[in-house]
Design brief:
Blueprint lengths: L1 H4 L12 H30 L6 H24 L5 H20 L11 H12 L2 H20 L8 H4 L2 H80 L2 H4 L2 H27 L9 E4 H13 L5 E6 L6 E4 L1 H17 L3 E9 L6 E8 L27 H12 L3 E6 L5 E8 L13 H4 L1
Length: 446
Amino acid sequence: MDRLIELFAPPGLPRGSASRANVILLTQLRWTAVFGQLATIVIVSQALGVKLQLAPLLLAPLLLIVVNLASASVVLRRRDFTQGELFSALMVDVIALCWQLYHSGGATNPFTFLFLLQIVIAAVILDLRWSSLVAINACLCMLLLTYFYVPLQLPERYAERPFELYIYGSLFCFVLAAVLLIVFVARLDFTRRESDAKLAALRQQAVEEDHIIRMGLLASGAAHELGTPLSSISVILGDWARQPGIAEDPDLAADLVDVRRELARCKNIVSGILMSAGEIRGIDPAVTTLRGFLSEILEEWRARMPGELRFIDRIAEDRSIVADPGLRQVIGNVIDNAVEVSPALVIIEAWVDAAGDHGQLVLTVSDRGPGFAPEMLPRVGQPYASTKGRDGGGLGLFLVVNVIRKLGGKVAVDNLADGGARVQLAIPLATLAYEPRKGDDTAGAA
């Protein structure tokens, strides 16, 4: 039932492609035609006393009902429709209207102006070739109805003044066409503009992803270049550690240990950059769990930050995943931003949302800093839109937003009511899910 409601939903709701939204609107217009035709038949035959051929006239609404029910089942299964299919749907309406008019006076029936409504709708939703075909077919129908039709049998009070009844019908048809044009054509135009906006967003995303590629090439190149000097420094520090003068001095020995530890951290960072630049899962993937993955990140940051890193674990069921070094860096980047503005306290909360096939990991990082400036909130995640007022800044959250988007997730930022900011990462578990292969020994270890 919820999916059937989509057929009558307002245009602001997401429904898929623009062509699918057009089919839904044509279905709604067809339902309007069904009820309008039935009401008109009742009014003309009962209130005005005009004798109508009810059997053929009721056949058209019955056909439209069958077409609508068939269309509803197709719309629920498909997300896109071709121009030819939209043309066929419109031609069903044109032929049904022509059939109705043929059995109710032909060109002498003022409702022939409804052909113009079909032409306008075709011009909005179809290409020039297809919309021209609709217009040509509508004109051919009018030509047919001019010479071939079943005359109306008017009652005596209108038989001598048939033009008066035509005037009343023309007025009603004009008002009806005006309302339908406002309601449906305006909504079709809204769908078109919405599609244009989505296309513009995709173009902007392509530009941003191109920017990321260039940054990734630069980072991986720098990582390769740094590998040699870091190795040389590691060798030199090893030689120093064996020098008697340093080994016998506790202070120098302790400093040397600190330097070697920081050097190892630099090498890990460089290795992480190189891993993130390639196919991570294809090169010795590390199988872990959600809690294990987050625990490693928390342990690393607790040793580095001066204040408290509080973790609220709301993960109901732990799951096996493939640890992604790129995602680790993204989460670390968010934590780093929070620690920079709120070194005393950073709160991390994690839970699994059941939405989707595999669900998604939702991770929020909250701080007690000054929060985002109101004018920066809409721009967070854009390149060089820095929340810290530094030239060339803003790349951290830009990378976070785009990496999470590549994984199929979303990033949301807002300010807390009691001060501070919050960044929420929603990551589909399908992109991290571990699926052991037959004969894989790591399956049992996981």
